[in-house]
Hints:
It is a single chain. The chain is of the alpha/beta class. The chain has one domain (4-232): P-loop containing nucleotide triphosphate hydrolases (Rossmann fold, 3-Layer(aba) Sandwich). The protein has 9 helices and 12 strands. The strands form 2 sheets. Strands 3, 4, 5, 6, 7, 8, 9, 10, 11 and 12 form a 10-stranded mixed β-sheet that branches. Strands 1-2 form a two-stranded antiparallel ribbon. Adenosine-5'-diphosphate (ADP) is lined by residues 30, 32-38, 70, 73-74, 230, 232. Adenosine-5'-diphosphate binds at residues 30, 32-38, 70, 73-74, 230, 232.
Amino acid sequence: MLLRVKTGVPGLDGILHGGLIKGSNILVTGGPGTGKTVLCAQFIYSGALKHDEPGVFVTVEERPNEMRKEIEQFGWNMKELEENEKIIIIDVASSKAGLSTDEPWALKRGFDINMLAQEIYKASREIDAQRIVVDSLSGVGIRYEKEAEIREAIFKISALLRQLEVTSIMTTETLTSSTGTVTRYGVEEFISQGVIELFLDEENRELKRSLLIRKMRGTAHSLKRFPFEIRSSGIVVLPGDEF
Length: 243
Ligand SMILES: Nc1ncnc2c1ncn2[C@@H]1O[C@H](COP(=O)(O)OP(=O)(O)O)[C@@H](O)[C@H]1O
Ligand SMILES: [Mg+2]
């Protein structure tokens, strides 16, 4: 029997026939503002709070304080769980922006992928992490000029996450082109064991959120597109027939 890990998102575990497969590496894709960061935070926060599964959150786009503040709007107190060594936030964003940081877990300026991998490894050992998020991959590759190097970096991170035997989520921003929606480097969806796609579409002059499980190796899952909302309590996935 495959063990399942609860996502912490009401309605999503049912669609996944019980949750994410323990130890798998999942990619969450979607355009800007589709809810990728909220979903990741909900996964890490609820895991630490309700399931006693410590988590590491690697933040590449947003500085930790910005993220903590946004997350607080949902009533999620990251700081408390950080103090209790249930959550570690690794600050990659400050270094990437060339800013100094007071964060206990942060990468130095001019970091490379091996330094990032090392920091993830250390942090996960420190709290015996069961869950890891890398938000986002698109930012990890920013220092590299050649696409081949960026792909290699993405492979390395994904391999490390699997080696650590944690359940992990990486995010990547999708781009819309004439051939449809694609991930930035075109490899992200192949290396991960599952892909959850988030959408924000205009319908009758109103934006609607929905999600689709595009791929989930080793398990049955719904193939329907499900509407979801970001409420004051976080993400809630609604039954598919309401879409
Ligand atoms: N407290 C909140 N209540 C309701 N919706 C929110 C709240 N905070 C953020 N959102 C919604 O979530 C969006 C941002 O989601 P986010 O996860 O940061 O997107 P992404 O990471 O995909 O760019 C905002 O544009 C807003 O629509
Ligand atoms: Mg984000």
